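Re: that backbone. Tokens:
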């Protein structure tokens, strides 16, 4: 029998989708001249493997690795060989190389993201003093709730009476004066006797989703509460334990804007 898989003995492991079940793959291999193996043995030339099974290093993968002659490839190798009706080289489909390349690309993007954040912070700190009066001279202003005009410039405080220490975070969400609307999120820390510092949580030019997520995440990190639950009072003895005392957010006075975004 002739075909693009002639001379190959192929084993399969992993989930490739409903339309690519092992029985169907076995039929494709036989129709195209190859042999299907239910396990790893000397005759196996290729192991078509899912990324998940390769990363978790299941038994078939470990066995195939023990045979240096077995190519552990992605499903794309089988599909492309059948589509082009020719036995393709396994070189570009080796899962070890694919997984490594994806890891390196993910690492590169993570480093690039950090560089962008650091660059945004550097530009911000260079261009303003104490946020340049809430960034008005930079074309930004404090974001206000469209429903009740609440200003997203909040203070989170934590007092330790034993050592007479009062720590504060000033968390600010900004937006541009004009369209297209861009956003930013910053936080400033201060405590008596300690050096104050500010950090960029979402750099200038961020989307609404990015800036708002940064605001919500920082609020939850320091208060142990979701923003939507900021006015909720824990019952006595029901507060979740934490390694350090939570920062507190004081509710606006009665009649003052409270913010309508998710809570």
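Recovered sequence:
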């Amino acid at each position: 029998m002739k075909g693009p898989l002639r001379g190959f003995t192929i084993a399969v492991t992993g989930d490739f989708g409903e339309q690519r079940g092992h029985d169907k793959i076995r039929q494709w291999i036989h129709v195209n001249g190859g042999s299907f193996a239910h396990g790893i043995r000397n005759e196996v030339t290729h192991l078509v493997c899912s990324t998940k099974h390769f990363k978790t290093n299941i038994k078939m993968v470990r066995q195939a690795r023990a045979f240096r002659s077995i190519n552990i490839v992605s499903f794309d190798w089988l599909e492309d060989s059948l589509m082009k009706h020719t036995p393709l080289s396994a070189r570009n489909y080796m899962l070890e190389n694919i997984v490594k390349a994806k890891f390196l690309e993910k690492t590169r993007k993570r480093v690039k993201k950090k560089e962008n954040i650091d660059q945004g912070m550097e530009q911000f700190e260079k261009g303003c003093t104490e946020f340049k009066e809430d960034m008005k001279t930079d074309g930004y202003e404090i974001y206000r709730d469209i429903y009740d005009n609440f200003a997203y410039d909040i203070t989170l405080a934590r007092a330790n009476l034993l050592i007479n220490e009062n720590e504060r975070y000033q968390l600010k969400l900004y937006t541009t004066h004009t369209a297209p609307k861009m956003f930013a999120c910053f936080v400033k820390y201060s405590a008596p006797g300690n050096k104050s510092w500010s950090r960029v949580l979402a750099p200038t030019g961020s989307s609404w989703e990015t800036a708002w997520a940064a605001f919500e995440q920082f609020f939850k990190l320091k208060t142990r509460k979701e923003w939507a639950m900021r006015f909720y009072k824990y019952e006595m003895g029901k507060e979740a334990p934490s390694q350090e005392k939570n920062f507190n957010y004081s509710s606006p006075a009665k009649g003052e804007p409270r913010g309508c975004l998710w809570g």
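The longest strand covers residues 165-176. Helices lie at 22-31, 51-56, 59-66, 75-84, 95-127, 130-135, 208-223.
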